[in-house]
Description:
- With 174 residues, the chain is mostly helical.
- The protein folds into two domains: 3-71, Rna Polymerase Sigma Factor, Chain: A; 82-169, Arc Repressor Mutant, subunit A, CATH 1.10.10.10.
- The chain is built from eight helices and two strands.
- The chain has helices spanning 3-23, 26-42, 53-71, 82-94, 99-105, 108-119, 124-131, 135-156; strands at 160-161, 167-169.
- Strands 1-2 form a two-stranded antiparallel ribbon.
- A hairpin with a 5-residue loop joins strand 1 and strand 2 (167-169).
- Helix 7 (124-131) packs across helix 8.
- The longest helix has 22 residues, at 135-156.
- The chain is elongated and about 80 Å long.
Amino acid sequence: MTCLTSAWALHEPELRGWARHRLGNAEDAEDLLQDLFLKALRQGERFCSVHNARAWLFEVARNTLADRLRVARDAVELPDDLAYLVDETDTVDNLTACLPRVLSELADEDREAISLCDLQGMSQGDFAQLKGLTLSAAKSRLQRARVRMKQQMTLACQVQIDPKGHVLDFVPRQ
């Protein structure tokens, strides 16, 4: 009996239980064990020089399982109205043409909050510290500024929104 068949006979029941527990399916567990055995078999005489055969088998089993799970990710179904979503994204992206005008029409305090936090990526905590505000006050200021910017953008760019809140159309103004 070779060292591989000896190690396999000794550790295969434990490996089978481990694989069934991880995969929740006896057939998938058997497939994993078959792949594992083939990988060990390909090692040939090198397998005999492995210090701890059980550890080697479990490590290769974990890696094989990880590879299978990585490949077997479920596909996400795309919605039937994908064209509508693409058109909406284009419309919203094009709406940024109105942004400079709308920002210039906001109060300085609103423009600063939106520019620093939303456009430049400053955290609300850093904004609060910069302005000497509590975090709660900074969040409130930014929220109010966003509401006023939305109102101004709707007015200045004649934004049309559907009942679900999606942008349908607008008039670009600069």
